[in-house]
Design brief:
The chain has five helices and seven strands; from the N terminus they run ααββαααβββββ. The longest helix is centred in the middle third of the chain and has 14 residues. It is elongated, with a radius of gyration of 18 Å. This is Tail protein.
């Protein structure tokens, strides 16, 4: 699975609290399924899982976590934004207020990853993680600011 590592890299590099305190970000995979149909007599499959992100001792506004994740979802899991059924349940959060200034924040994302498996030379299997389908040709032209400072966007991961 590649997406959990991409999310870790995104948040670790774009959220000041996590740049300074990388141990405050915890990433877990829950409720994982492998969906393989055997269509075309191949071993291609799809990962389906909840990616759980927990940020501890967070003193900044939750927006500084949510906005980068929304930007990442726009390209890496766009159906969570575009599909009304999936947007209702695909991006959840909860927080435990620790004191007057900090909270532990849990974010749960329903993610998928498609994997193509084909026989290569000498009967070796070639495994390729497929990119997300593009739903429109319009380029997203965003500028992201965190605390008044422009952040390179989209993130390169």
């Amino acid at each position: 699975m590649n997406k959990p590592a991409q999310l870790r890299e995104l948040l670790s590099s774009h959220v000041p609290h996590l740049q300074q305190n990388p141990d405050c970000l915890h990433v877990f995979i829950e409720n994982g399924n492998i969906i393989a149909t055997g269509a075309g007599q191949n071993l291609s499959f799809e990962y389906q899982f909840n990616c759980v992100l927990i940020v501890t001792d967070y003193a900044a506004h939750a927006d500084t976590l949510i906005v980068p994740i929304l930007g990442w979802l726009a390209t890496q899991q766009p159906e969570l934004l575009l599909n009304p059924d999936k947007r209702e349940t695909g991006f959840k959060f909860k927080a435990e207020i620790i004191n007057h200034t900090t909270a532990d924040i849990e974010i749960v994302l329903a993610l998928t990853e498609r994997v193509k498996v084909v026989a290569g030379e000498g009967m070796q299997l070639e495994v390729t993680h497929l990119p997300e389908p593009v739903f429109n040709d319009e380029a997203i032209d965003w500028t992201l600011y965190t605390n008044g400072i422009e952040v390179p966007w989209p993130p390169t991961i």
